[in-house]
Design brief:
152 residues, alpha+beta, 4-stranded antiparallel sheet, 3-stranded antiparallel sheet, 4 helices, 7 strands, 43% helix, 20% strand, transmembrane, membrane, N_methyl_site
Length: 152
Amino acid sequence: MKKQGGFTLIELVVVIVILGILAVTAAPKFLNLQDDARTAAAEGLKGAMKGAAGIVYGKSAINGTEAVSASTVTINGQNIATVFGYPAATSSALGSVVSGLGTDWNLVTGTAAGTVGYSASDNPTTASCYVSYTQAADRNNEPNVELQNCTN
């Protein structure tokens, strides 16, 4: 008669308990990946906005309108409203210079005057992670582009 080999019930329970402990300690790291992805995407948008603002400012400087409080520049056949040479804080001005802004990002509701925000969230508010763009206050200052309510 052959003796059958296998795992005892106690051995199986111990393995399940160990796997449970590992899952509980590792799960928060894996669940937080979506927030990290949103924050990384927002960082990319922040860089794109800063780069686009610099390009628009360069075009304004060439036109001699970088010191004017309200003007327009034409880039790729589109008129872009500017404030002190930088894009105005409107969805149309920023949408004209930042590729994919209107299609891939959602406009945040409830931002202050002179500020516009964009979020990857489906229902963006000022409580969600978003990128805010505050237009230049005067000719000596650049626009302020920063992340709002994003966790790292």
